[in-house]
TrEMBL record:
Transmembrane residue ranges: 48-67, 88-107, 113-133, 154-173, 226-247, 253-273
Family to which the UniProt record says this protein belongs: Belongs to the UppP family.
Gene Ontology cellular component annotations, sorted alphabetically: plasma membrane
The encoding gene: uppP2
A GO term for molecular function: undecaprenyl-diphosphatase activity
Topology in membrane: Multi-pass membrane protein
Example GO biological process: regulation of cell shape
More details: Bacitracin is thought to be involved in the inhibition of peptidoglycan synthesis by sequestering undecaprenyl diphosphate, thereby reducing the pool of lipid carrier available.
Catalytic activity: di-trans,octa-cis-undecaprenyl diphosphate + H2O = di-trans,octa-cis-undecaprenyl phosphate + phosphate + H(+)
Keywords: Antibiotic resistance, Cell membrane, Cell shape, Cell wall biogenesis/degradation, Hydrolase, Membrane, Peptidoglycan synthesis, Transmembrane, Transmembrane helix
Name used for this protein in its record: Undecaprenyl-diphosphatase
EC code: 3.6.1.27
Function according to Swiss-Prot or TrEMBL: Catalyzes the dephosphorylation of undecaprenyl diphosphate (UPP). Confers resistance to bacitracin.
Length: 275
């Protein structure tokens, strides 16, 4: 790996990790297009490192919310002198991540056996279909009961957590795609679903990346540390910008737009990898 390759992969990770387009699919396609026939241990470790950069970015974006959940945030008083309290609490987050973490822990080897180009290709298509259905149902059939993040009920948080299992069991389905769609199918607005999806990404991705690093720490050597640092920083900067822009333009970029992009990516996937 050279510096240019490291930067390209970090940019792809930063762009795709939190929007519903499947970072897994993009990383497989990118590594193949860059000439890596298959991933070795070093490449897998590098992907973990740049994923950690993306996690730090999302933690920075939602730092005030995270501090509030941990009881460390500062709250400003309202005009009446009453301290406003956030209704979203740690139980919502636990319900949102526990199902996926349990499945990932007990089925880790089985999930790894499912990983492959064909699996990812069909996951791109299936995830796109779910996103189109979720948007259609959310806008026409379901009464929105949670317009903001603090309106989220425990039942809705759990429902989002259960939908997240799909992305755990089906590599390439997209964690954000499954959670945002799950929220919208449960009566949560598009924006609130995206906010909760990004928020619960912090603990679940930290757990997954940290666990994988236990098997990869030997790849951190004097020869590789430079690439890891460059990738971490680039992924952090790009992911931060992408999340800020996504939340700013969320009302203009519908899930259907991402679904169409996924179908196009699946076609490219088939042309360059499957054939």
């Amino acid at each position: 790996m050279d510096t240019i390759t490291a930067i390209i992969l970090a940019v792809v990770e930063g762009i795709t990790e939190f929007i519903p387009v499947s970072s897994t699919g993009h990383m497989i396609l990118t590594t193949r297009l860059l000439g890596f026939a298959e991933q070795n241990s070093l490449m897998k470790t590098y992907e973990i490192v740049i994923q950690l950069g993306a996690i730090l970015a999302i933690a920075l974006v939602y730092r005030q919310r995270v501090l509030n959940l941990l009881g460390l945030g500062r709250r400003s008083q309202s005009r009446g002198g009453v301290m406003p309290a956030s209704r979203l609490n740690l139980l919502h987050v636990i319900l949102g991540i526990a199902p996926a973490l349990a499945v990932a822990f007990f089925a880790r080897d089985f999930i790894k056996s499912l990983f492959g180009a064909t699996t990812v290709l069909w996951a791109l298509v299936a995830g796109g279909i779910l996103m189109i259905i979720a948007e259609w149902v959310n806008r026409r059939k379901i009464r929105i009961t949670a317009h903001e993040l603090d309106d989220l009920s425990y039942g809705q948080a759990l429902a989002i957590g259960l939908y997240q299992i799909i992305s755990v069991l089906w590599p390439g389905f997209s964690r954000s795609g499954s959670t945002i769609s799950g929220g919208m199918l449960s009566g949560v607005s598009y924006k609130a679903s995206a906010d909760f999806s990004f928020l619960i990404a912090i603990p679940i991705m930290c757990a997954a990346s940290g666990y994988e690093l236990l098997d990869s720490y030997r790849d951190f050597t004097s020869d590789t540390i430079g690439f890891f640092v460059v990738g971490f920083l680039v992924s952090f900067v790009v992911a931060y910008a992408v999340v800020i822009l996504f939340m700013k333009w969320i009302q203009k970029i519908r899930l259907t737009h991402f679904a169409i992009y996924r179908f196009i990516l699946a076609a490219v996937f088939w042309l360059f990898i499957m054939r």
